[in-house]
Amino acid sequence: MKPYCIFITCLVLFAFCSLARSEFSQGPDKCCFSFSNVRIPVKQVESHHTTHLECNRNGVIVITKAQREICVDPTERWVQRLINFVDNQNMKEMSLSSSEDSE
């Protein structure tokens, strides 16, 4: 009877530990498993961000003005140009809005 009780107790403890670990784990929210081959026009891009370091593949998630998320390959030249252009455009908008606020 005692080994049975010890086994059940260990099983219950293991279940609680597994549940607690899964609730508090900090894993990636979104990863790219494949990349789009379609070039996205700059006019349609609202923002972008890179995937989490724990993802198997490095990727860039482009968010369009229609709120679609598209995974693209950051090593592609057109993606690098797109990121630079969007970043520069956002910096200009931020500097314009800060100069308007100071007036």
Write a compact overview of the structure shown.
This protein has 103 residues and is of the alpha+beta class. The chain contains 2 helices and 3 strands.
Q: Label the overall shape.
A: elongated
Strand-residue proportion: 5-15%
Query: Helix count?
Result: 2
CATH class of the domain at 29-98: Mainly Beta
Largest sheet: 3 strands, antiparallel
Number of strands: 3
Output the CATH topology of the domain at 29-98. Answer: OB fold (Dihydrolipoamide Acetyltransferase, E2P)
Radius of gyration: 23 Å
Which strand order do you get reading across the main beta sheet?
1-2-3
Oligomeric assembly = single chain
Which CATH-level-2 architecture of the domain at 29-98?
A: Beta Barrel
| N-end to C-end Cα span | 81 Å
**pLDDT < 50 runs, ≥5 residues:** 20-24
Overall SS class? alpha+beta
Features:
single chain; alpha+beta; OB fold (Dihydrolipoamide Acetyltransferase, E2P); three-stranded antiparallel beta sheet; 15% strand; C-C motif chemokine 3-like
How would you portray this structure in words?
A three-stranded antiparallel beta sheet has the order 1-2-3, with helices on one face. With 103 residues, the protein is α+β, with helices and mostly antiparallel strands. The protein has a domain at 29-98: OB fold (Dihydrolipoamide Acetyltransferase, E2P). The relative contact order is 0.12. It has two helices and three strands. The radius of gyration is 23 Å and the shape is elongated. The protein has helices at residues 2-24, 77-102, and strands spanning 45-50, 60-64, 69-72. It comes from Carassius auratus (Goldfish). Residues 1-22 form the signal peptide.
